[in-house]
Amino acid sequence: xxxxxxxxxxxxxxxxxxxxxxxNGGTVGLPITxxxxxxxxxxxxxxxxxxxxxxxxxxxxxxYRRDNGAFVLHRIVGKNEEGFILCGDNQVNKEYGINxxxxxxxxxxxxxxxxxxxxxxxSYKLYVKLxxxxxxxxNIILVPLRKIKGLFK
Length: 153
What we know:
This protein is of the alpha+beta class. The chain has helices at residues 11-23, 122-133, 138-151, and strands at residues 28-31, 46-51, 61-65, 71-80, 83-87, 95-98, 103-112, 115-118.
C-alpha cells in the first residue's frame, strides 16, 4: 500500500506561480486561513477562486501583498487619494494605502462544503452591502459575540 505524504507550502514559496497564472488569465484556488473574513469565509472549510483584478471596485474581496510581505484577503470598503480602503469582514479597523501594485487577484467565487457560488449571486451581493453598511457599528456587534463565544471554549 502506497502512502501519500503531504507537505505544507507557504504562500511565499508558491507566490511566483500564483502571480504568473493570474497574470496570464488563469484562476487560482486558495484555501482560507485566518479569521479576518468571518463570518463569510471560514478557515479550513472554504476556498476562494482568484482571478485577475483589472478594475477593483468597492465590495470586491482582493488578495494582496502588503509592503511588509504579508499576504492578505480583505474587502474593499472605499477609496481615497492614498488608494483603496480595506477591511476584513471580522474586523473594525480599516487599512489604508493599498494600491493596484499590491493587488494579486480578486475573488471570483467561493466554495463552501463542496458547493461553489459566484460573487455575482444576488444573496451574496445583499450580504456584502448589509455587512459593509454596518461597518461603523461592528464593534457593538462583534465584541459581545466574541465574549459570548469565549465562554463556551
